[in-house]
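Q: What would this chain look like folded?
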Amino acid sequence: MNPRAAHGFTLVEVLVAVAIVAIALAAGSRAGGSLLNNAQRLTSVTEAQWCADNELTALKLAHRFPDIGESTGECMQLAHTYRSVVRVQATPNPNFRRIDVVIANDSGQQLLTQSTVLPRY
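A: My prediction, written as structure tokens:
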């Protein structure tokens, strides 16, 4: 038997294999982190959507023509607090009002803007 025909892997081959595995694990970890961030963002935007829907539904159920102006408030959804700004604006038709609801998280980052038009009742 030839002494140079030893069985097994050389150190260089093992180091290349370890480097490939490390790169694959790093890429997988980054992808997993992105998925987690996207899931958290989706949760926040969904909760903000619920807050905006609640604000607009309250205005619709009031059965009164909203006054032009801006008001602020807070909304609790699933133990998170969101800030809301409701802006009522005139439209070219005086029988309608445009309502914009802006929802931000507790650090002030705007998450969602939802708009609708309400008629005079």
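The longest strand covers residues 80-90.
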